[in-house]
UniProtKB/TrEMBL annotation:
CDD domains tied to this protein: Precorrin_2_C20_MT
Compositionally biased region (Basic and acidic residues): 268-287
Superkingdom, natural source: Archaea
Stretches with biased composition (Low complexity): 254-267
E.C. code: 2.1.1.151
Pathway: Cofactor biosynthesis; adenosylcobalamin biosynthesis
Keywords, in A-Z order: Cobalamin biosynthesis, Methyltransferase, Transferase
Source species: Halobellus limi
InterPro entries: 4pyrrol_Mease, 4pyrrol_Methylase_sf, 4pyrrole_Mease_sub1, CobI/CbiL, Uropor_MeTrfase_CS
Tetrapyrrole methylase domain ranges (all copies): 2-172
Protein name, per record: Cobalt-factor II C(20)-methyltransferase
Coiled coil regions, renumbered to chain: none
GO molecular function: cobalt-factor II C20-methyltransferase activity; precorrin-2 C20-methyltransferase activity
Length: 287
């Protein structure tokens, strides 16, 4: 019948959409590409209905194609005879493993129907977690910044895969950007960190993004006048932490480090998930 690609959201089980949860509850089998996505899915689906697909820890394209053909061969009959779901963190169509599966099914099992249930992507969730507003009239670009890259150009950027924060930071600041980082936002595994201090994130964690804004931008939406204080009442503005776990600092200051006892568990979860996403995840701290 159908394979559903279900976006699980950034990692907290209650950020799965109502439709996504219904599909997971009704599916005969739910495939998860990594341990993080599996831990979210099992909040909604009994372990007995979780199916695993194996991915090699490689960037070799031939090997990856072989792995995706094998995964599609496993999943196609289950989707043909019933309902199967394949989960990904965030949204299935944003930097996700699901694209590989969809293309492989289309090539080798074209009779299998595919539907996508969108998920809350880190592309949008970062705004609330970092206290950023993308006001009407402004533009924003999505970039990757792995291995210390510092892409520049657009006025505002959300950067994914920020695996060497101090090096990326230096390039962005030199190019005239203010930068804020978010690590493990709305994730039930690992500690959420929001900070503008690159040294607080010197250790490597694949689930790190950045928001970079050119210094001196002034979009002036109508209500920006309230920020100047000229038209405000005496009441202070309401402050929200955007639903981020209490460990997050909303003043963008430095955060404490993760519990050492769980650090290696988190690192191995990160490696498995990152490699399933097609990333070679380096061992150990970045510096
Ligand atoms: C392969 S992409 C997956 C994106 C996902 N499909 C989505 O829509 O959010 C992984 C990158 O997304 C970012 N990311 C995803 N979830 C995140 C989270 N909960 N907190 C911080 N960054 C996250 C990180 O930059 C990470 O390196």
């Amino acid at each position: 019948m159908t394979l559903y690609g279900v976006g699980l959201g950034p990692g907290d089980a209650d950020l799965v959409t109502v439709r996504g949860r219904r599909v997971l509850e009704e599916a005969d089998v739910v495939y998860s590409p990594g341990r993080l996505s599996r831990s979210v899915a099992t909040e909604h689906v009994p372990e007995a209905r979780i199916g695993d697909v194996d991915f090699p820890m490689t960037r070799d394209e031939e090997e990856l194609r072989r792995a995706w053909k094998a995964a599609a061969a496993e999943i196609a009959p289950r989707a043909r005879d019933g309902t199967a779901a394949f989960v990904t963190l965030g949204d299935p169509n944003v930097y996700s493993t699901f694209g590989h599966l969809r293309r492989t099914l289309a090539a080798f099992h074209p009779d299998v129907g595919v539907e996508v249930v969108p998920g809350v992507s880190a592309v949008t969730a970062f705004t609330t977690a970092l206290g950023v507003e993308i006001a009407s009239g402004s533009s924003i670009a999505l970039r990757e910044a792995a291995r210390g890259a510092s892409p520049t150009g657009p006025d505002r950027m959300v950067l994914f895969k920020v695996t060497d924060v101090p090096v990326t930071h230096e390039g962005l600041v030199d190019a005239g950007y203010d930068v804020v980082y978010g690590r493990r936002l709305y994730m039930q595994q690992g500690e959420t960190v929001v900070t503008d201090d690159p040294e607080a994130l010197a250790d490597r964690d694949y689930y790190t993004l950045a928001y970079a804004e050119k210094r001196g931008l002034d979009p002036r939406p109508a209500t920006a006048a309230f920020d100047d204080g000229a038209e405000t009442e005496s009441e202070p503005a309401a402050h929200t932490d955007g639903g981020v776990e209490p460990t997050a600092q909303t003043d963008w200051g430095a955060e404490s480090t993760a519990d050492a006892a769980t650090a290696s568990d988190i690192a191995s979860v990160e490696r498995a998930e990152g490699e399933a996403c097609g990333d070679a995840v380096r061992e150990g701290p970045s510096r």
